[in-house]
Amino acid sequence: MSVSTDATTGEPLPIIAPEEVMAQKEHGTCTGPPQEDLRWGCSFETADNICCFNRHYAEYSGYWLKTKFLEEVTSTLSLTPTNPQP
Question: What pTM was computed for the model?
Answer without folding.
Answer: 0.64
